Amino acid sequence: MEPSRCSRGDEGRKRKLEASNNEGSPVASDDMGLKAFLDQHSEQMRRMQSQIAGLMAINITLQARLDGQAESQAQEVNGLREKCDVLESKCGSLERSIQVLTKDVSWSYSAPSIPRSHWIEQGRDEEYADNMEECLERFKGDVNSIRNGEENYCGCLYHEGLMEVLHDDALLPH
């Protein structure tokens, strides 16, 4: 090469290195500056690579945790679905049982009647025997109404203005 060409090439290179770049990085002006500049960038690259490796390790750890939790939740959901299926099956079975039981039920008043003579034999008067017959009829009517879903009020508990009903074991089934 010609000496004039070499010196021009070196000058051009120096001018390129001395010119400021748009990124604000320091510009090396000679070979020593260039080496320092490259060393600095190399160190930055190593730090960035180290940070990237650390972030990748954290990402792998987080992904493993996420996968573990997703698997755990999937197992829990499957278990709950199985329990739900069992409960729905039991519910259906119970509903069918209730339909079978209520289909042929006779909602009649099944307590035994108490003859008028019972009250007289107990030493009560005719008025008391009449009152008890009326009271037992009210019981029967109220029970039938309640069993048939016709009434939410039980008049048999309302005794104002009526004679007092004394305890008698014969009344227990009523």
Helix content: 55-70%
Major pleated sheet = none
The parts where pLDDT drops under 50 for at least 5 residues are none
Name the average pLDDT: 81
The radius of gyration computed from the alpha-carbon positions, rounded to a whole number of angstroms, is 50 Å
List the domain count as a whole number. 2
Keywords: Coiled coil
Key terms for this structure?
174 residues; mainly alpha; 4 helices; 67% helix; rod-shaped; coiled coil
Describe the structure.
With 174 residues, the protein is mostly helical. It folds into two domains: 28-101; 116-171, no CATH class. The protein is built from four helices and no strands. It is rod-shaped and about 135 Å long. The relative contact order is 0.04. The model has no long low-confidence stretch (mean pLDDT 81).
In short:
The chain has 174 residues and is an all-alpha fold. 67% of the residues lie in helices and 0% in strands.
SSE blueprint:
Layout: H1 3-18, H2 31-103, H3 116-121, H4 126-147
Biased composition (Basic and acidic residues): 1-13
Coiled coil: 38-97
Region (Disordered): 1-33
